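Justification of computing resources. Each target in the renewal requires a structure prediction run like the one illustrated here; the chain below, 137 residues long, is used simply to show the kind of job we budget for.
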Amino acid sequence: MEYPALPNGNANLFETSTKSRNTFQPDFIVKFVDGTVGIFDTKPIDHRVEDTAVKANALSKYLRDINTNRGILPPVIGGIVVKDGTQFYVYVGTGGYHDYAADPKGWMNFNELLRNINDGMKLTQRIEQYLAQFKKN
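Resulting structure tokens:
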């Protein structure tokens, strides 16, 4: 399987500014069983928010760009991940990044994200089973 090309031809660098070549390396790039690729960067809550916003917005732009016209290929997802108590949250909001401490709107529980991927896999499997039955008849 081919993986989506990342900016600058490098598998772990994202350009964060057009004026100078500032980059960052996300903490995790994972491939889920259904083929979905996840790109996640972990950050502490309420720490270097401006720097995190630049990185979050660069990653968000990359995800929008790579998912445009993907057709039937699984999506590339991701975002900034923070820990609040015992729970992890991923920023999925639109309109620019904001810190979890400022407002939890736009943040999704990471377990919910994983359930959504799993539910999508189950739906895909059910559709494939139905189509296989249909082809037999």
